[in-house]
């Protein structure tokens, strides 16, 4: 009989539980799935399930969702968000904050994925899953190390995503300021706008590029001019349908140029 202390509690560890813990320790696994453990082939599925159930009762590991687990003291929410969906990317407001484009710290984790996934809570934190076409799950980098890795959108992809879904990004004051402060790459902006395939989004970004005098963006402006249509779009997606019109970019400026400049430099 083997006793072990776990988070201040003493419990009896059986043989298979000891084997499982040793495997987690040897490979530095703080977050894992039942399938991961099965593929390692050190215990059969039934043995794993029984060992996991016992370790859950002992509060050595916690269940994230069906057949996905983490150690009791592991609560890295970016890692969890990337883990629960195979192509999950930390995006929108979280990515803005990560890249230093906003001082606001969201209390929600925003995850972009091509999978169907209901919004949920893990360990008291709300996760919002935004479903996109698989082609839009691009423009990210992998951060962290080993078992603690997560995917997060890069700066250019973050800007495009935030103007696509400002409601997941802190609103227009935040995303305009982020746009103003971000160092943008014209070719990347063209690439991500093409993937989104939304003319109104491209028009908004092109208008802002000129208004806020973003440098080295001629390639993006030429692309935007090539796709502009005759239909007028609201600059602020859900704002009032009134304001001056910008003929070049076919926009109704329901936020005035003065308001936009003030938000950018706030």
Total number of helical segments?
11
Characterize the quaternary organization of these chains: single chain
Total domains: 2
Major sheet: arrangement of strands: 6-7-9-8
Mean of pLDDT:
94
Q: Work out the number of β strands.
A: 14
Class by SSE composition: alpha+beta
The succession of helices and strands, N to C, reads EEHEHHEEHEHEEEEEHHHHHEEEH
User: Gap between N and C termini, in Å?
Assistant: 64 Å
Radius of gyration of CA atoms, rounded to a whole number: 23 Å
Query: Low-confidence parts, pLDDT < 50 over ≥5 residues?
Result: none
Question: Biggest β-sheet: count, sense, barrel?
Answer: 4 strands, mixed
Query: What percent strand?
Result: 15-25%
Shape designation: elongated
Q: Helix content range of the residues, please?
A: 40-55%
Structure write-up:
With 266 residues, the chain is α+β, with helices and mostly antiparallel strands. The protein folds into two domains: 2-71, Arc Repressor Mutant, subunit A (Orthogonal Bundle), CATH 1.10.10; 78-264, no CATH class. The chain has a four-stranded mixed beta sheet. Strands 3-5-4 form a three-stranded antiparallel beta sheet. The protein has helices spanning 15-26, 34-40, 45-57, 77-83, 92-98, 155-164, 172-181, 186-196, 199-211, 218-227, 257-264; strands at residues 2-6, 9-13, 31-33, 61-65, 68-71, 89-90, 108-113, 120-122, 125-131, 140-143, 150-153, 233-234, 244-246, 251-253. The protein is elongated, with a radius of gyration of 23 Å. β13 (244-246) and β14 (251-253) form a beta hairpin. The longest helix has 13 residues, at 45-57.
